[in-house]
Amino acid sequence: MSKQMKSVLKLASMSLFVVSLAACGSSTTTNTRNIGSPLDIVNKGLSQLSYSPGQDGYQYKSTNFPAADQKYIKDELKQPLEDAMSKVGDGYVLQVTGHTCSIGPREAVGGKRGNIWYSTQRAKGVYDALITAGFPKDKLTYKGVADDEPLQSVEPQDQKNRRVTFKVVAQQ
Q: What is the pLDDT of residues 49-68, one digit of tens each?
């Protein structure tokens, strides 16, 4: 084989190697972009979890956390929530978020407490239940969002919107 032919083959091999590296790099970048950050992945998983008495939504104006549901928190929710927290590491907490339907005022008006109050109380009830189940208090926070985040599959005034959800957020 001539010296010139060897040079051409070497150049072709190098070109093929560079092109294959570039192709691998671009597909990895695309896949990473589609998957999202670890926090996005964890929160997408957590979006499948929620709590409401009987899993049908709280009764109107109800904020009660039934004592009988403590077993559900301990047996069904605690482990997936702890697993989620272990995937994001330090600097993050689990936010317990209370929700309402769109019925009633957002803020307190006259003698009515308002949906912010009801949603906050629902979140606080589940927050307390998680602590009772052994979840570390310093890894939890809670807040109410009223009807700001309704379920997409139901009407805004539907009882199923009265629930508690979970997501991991940066610790404040």
A: 999 998 889 999 999 999 99
3-class SS at 138?
helix
* Predicted model pTM: 0.78
**CA distance linking residue 80 with residue 117, whole number of Å:** 27
Rounded to 5 degrees, φ, ψ at 166 are: -135, 145
140 in Cβ contact with 93 (< 8 Å):
yes
Cα 129 to Cα 42: distance, rounded to the nearest angstrom: 22
Residue 2 CB partners (closer than 8 Å, separation 6+): none
In the chain, how many domains are there?
2
pLDDT, tens digit, 9 for 90 and up, residues 57-105:
999 999 999 999 999 999 999 999 999 999 988 999 999 999 999 999 9
- Please tell me what DSSP assigns to residue 68: G
| Residues 98, 50 share a domain | yes
DSSP class of residue 114 equals: -
* Contact by Cβ (8 Å): 89, 135: no
**What's 166's domain CATH number?**
3.30.1330.60
144 and 112 within one domain? yes
Report the alpha-carbon distance of residue 124 to residue 130 in Å, rounded.
10
